[in-house]
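DM from R.C. (forwarded with permission)

"hey, sorry to bug you on a friday — could you get me a structure for this? deadline for the figure draft is monday and I only need the backbone to look sensible"
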Amino acid sequence: MAHSICRMMVTSALLASVAIAMPIQAKEKDNARIGDVNITVDGGAIKGSAENGVLSWKGIPFAAPPVGPLRWRAPQPVKPWNGIRETTAYGSDCMQVPFPSDAAPLGTPPAEDCLYANVWRPAKASGKLPVMVWIYGGGFVNGGASPPTYSGAELAQQGILVMSFNYRVGRFGTFAHPALTAENADNGLVGNYGFMDQLAALQWVKRNIAAFGGDPDNVTIAGESAGGMSVNTLVTSPMARGLFARAVVMSGGDGSSMGEGALAAAEKIGVDFASSKDIAVDDPQALVKLRGLSADQVTDGLNMMALFRPSQGPRTFASPFADGKLAVDSGKAYRSGDFAKVPVMIGATSADLGGKTGFMVAGARSLAGSIADKGVPVYSYRFSYVASSLKDEGAGHATEIPYFFDTTRIKYGTATTPRDINMGKAASAYLVNFVKKGDPNGVGLPQWPRYDRGKDEMMDFAPTGKAVPGKDPWGADLDAANAAPRP
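My reply, with the result:
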C-alpha cells in the first residue's frame, strides 16, 4: 500500500541572437567545420550563431512535423529545404497546457509541430567532442527543451557538445486505440510516440553530430524525472543499443514505468478519450476523426495541474507503458542483466517526491545496486544543497538541474550567491567529467567512489555547499523500509 501511494504521488507530480556567418575553416586539422556556424545536416544546410565562445544551433528539424496523417505515427524523415535555414531560435515546444508552477518554464509557445533539436559546442575546440544529450522531465504531460536553465552553453564552455530536443507529451506522446493498432503503420510500434521521438533523436545524433564536431561514438544520455525514466527506458531498450556510451539518471525512480498495464490498458484509455469526443470505438472513421481533432481538443486541458484534480469519470490519458519492443520493463531488465552495460551516474534530491523511502530516493539507491551487481560502473549521488535564497527544507524535486547545467545565475538571478555558483561549478564539473570519460572524477574535486552495494558509498552534494563522499547516511533506514512487510 505504501509503495502504491508513493507511486501515485510520483505519477501525479511528475509531475535571435544574430547569426554570425563565419568563413569555413578549410585548413582545420581535425574538423573543417570548427569555428563555423554553417553546416549541413539531414534536410539541408543550417546557420547558427556564436556568442561568448560558444557556437549554437537551435530549432533544427530532426523529423517531419507530426501533424495531420503523421499524428500518432513514429517520426518520419525531415523534408529537405532549399538554401540555408536559420537555426538561431528554439523551435516550438510540444503541444501542452503549460504547468503554471513548473520549475523550468517554457521559452516558446507550444505547438504540435515540435520535433526540433538544439546544439551547443565550444567555438575553439578541435577534434571529436564528447556529446551529452539532454531529455527533459515533466511527467510525460509537460516539459520542453526551451527553458533557459536547460541551456547547454555553460557546459559547452567546459569542452563538451550538448544536444537537446523535444519529444511529444500528453496525448500526443502516449496514445493507443484499436484503430491505430489495426493500422499498424510503423511495424508494430504503437502508443509510445514520445519514446519513438527520443529514439529518432538519438539516431539523428548518430548520423549528424559529427557535422558539429561531436563524436557519435561518445554520447551520454542524461535526463531528470520523466527524462530520467526515459533514460532507464533507453538503457534497457533493445532498439536503442549502440546509440550511447553512458547514461545519467536524475530522479528517475527505481526502473518501473508510470503506465499501468500494457497496450490493452492504454487502448481502453484511448477508447474512453475518443468516446468523450463522440467518436465510437466501432466507427470505421474513428482514426480519421481523431486525427481531425484540433491540437487543443486533443490536449483537452491536460497538464500536471490536472493530475491533482479528482477524477470526473474514466481516465482519458495514458502514461508510457512497456510495449515489449521499444519499451520493456526496465526494472526487470536491470535485475536480469538484459540492458546496455554502460557507465551510469544516478541519484535523486534529498527532499524528492515520496520522501526518504520513496520511489525517487530509495528507488535510485536500489537501482544503483542492481546495476552495480552486474559489474557495471555506477556513481550514486544525493543532491542535498538548497539555494542560499531559499528556506532549507531539503532539496526539492528538479532543483539539482541548474547546478549540473551551471545555470544557477539564470535560475536565481540577482539572488544567486557565490556559494550557489561554487556548487554549480562543482556539480557541472563532475557531470562534464562523466560525459568525457565515464567517470566523474577529476583534478581538484573530492574523490567520488564507484558504487558497490556492500560499501554503499555515494556523493552527497551537501547543504554546506560542498561535495562530500562517503557511506550513505540513510542506508540503514532505507534497508529497513525495504525489508518491512507491505500491507
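R.C.: lifesaver. Residues 125 and 142 are 35 Å apart (CA to CA).
me: no worries. Confidence is low (pLDDT under 50) at residues 1-33.
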